[in-house]
């Protein structure tokens, strides 16, 4: 009961455009989750496994990678290491929104909801309060629909189509790009984005795939101010 009341309060704090954005993101995450669940079950995993993984990890990219590596005959340890490498980008995310995450038990709860979508939605808000509310509302929605979609996809099995056919895989980068474009009007933000881009380009020939992006994200995180920090 308390959780429902708290969620309603959060939802009222979030402005209508952000509510619509979160709803659209959750719809896309549901479809992606269905594909993930169907893929995992078809690869031989028991239905409970991807669902539990979805609740505990809550990171689609690393979960898809884990399932794919194990299904292809790789060791679970190698799959785990690959997933941790992908999720290392969350270090930069945490540096970008420390006010949103909070401290202590609240910080642990907030860190579990940390992903591309929640951080982008939070950074698009005007104040710390609005940023925290949008972050938690988006995170709670994804926490519900990702394992929920996974369960549904696992039950439906091969009846679930590839989300790429409908362009769902393009929803997330398009939304993230749309959220950051207004911020690029700020000179400091532009400098941070350009510095991160340059670092990624320079290190791409030298480092394994994925690491240049992680370095760029961490480097840019401390140079780009939050809207509510100005």
From TrEMBL:
Its main location: membrane. It comes from the Bacteria. The chain crosses the membrane at residues 64-86, 133-159, 165-184, 196-221. It is found in: Cell membrane. InterPro entries: Brnchd-chn_aa_trnsp_permease (IPR011606). It is a multi-pass membrane protein. Belongs to the AzlC family. Keywords: Cell membrane, Membrane, Transmembrane, Transmembrane helix, Transport. This is AzlC family ABC transporter permease. The lineage of its organism: Bacteria, Bacillati, Actinomycetota, Actinomycetes, Mycobacteriales.
